[in-house]
Write a structure and sequence with these properties.
alpha+beta, 139 residues, 27% strand, five-stranded antiparallel beta sheet
């Protein structure tokens, strides 16, 4: 029986995956009663999925994993490209102040800024790029 505190789903390797992923993250966090901010989770998930679609070759599905942690949640996006993303854990010299008029370049900054941790790891079929969000304080 699957772990009730995690969701795992395949997404199409197209731009249609972005709104699907946003909806799935919101649903998953509600379903597993995650204490993390679902609006932030949706935004950061959309960035990871959009990057996977844009920067990985082929048409193999992208996998979305949402997991409840003791202190928040973790979201992973798996793709078939073993190349690591641009430096996700520390900004490069040109990443510190992205041009607000450019279409690209703010996604990784958002992930680094709004998550409590982020990174990537190799998988048997490519890589997983992930972020964690802390629990919201009780109201």
């Amino acid at each position: 029986m699957p772990d009730p505190c995690a969701w795992r789903i395949a997404l199409p390797h197209t731009t249609a995956a972005v709104p699907i992923a946003r909806a799935l993250v919101r649903t998953a966090l509600a379903d597993i009663d995650a204490p993390a901010d679902s609006d932030t989770a949706e935004l950061l998930t959309a960035e990871l999925v959009a990057n996977a679609v844009e920067h990985t070759p082929g048409d193999a599905p992208i996998e979305l994993v949402v997991e409840l942690l003791a202190n928040g949640c973790q979201v992973e996006v798996h793709d078939g490209d073993p190349e690591p993303p641009a430096d996700l854990t520390a900004p490069g010299p040109d990443d510190a102040h992205p041009d607000p008029w450019q279409e690209h370049g703010r996604g990784l900054l958002l992930i680094r800024t709004l998550s409590s941790a982020c990174g990537h790891r190799a998988t048997p079929h490519g890589k997983a790029v992930w972020f964690t969000l802390p629990s919201r304080p009780p109201r």
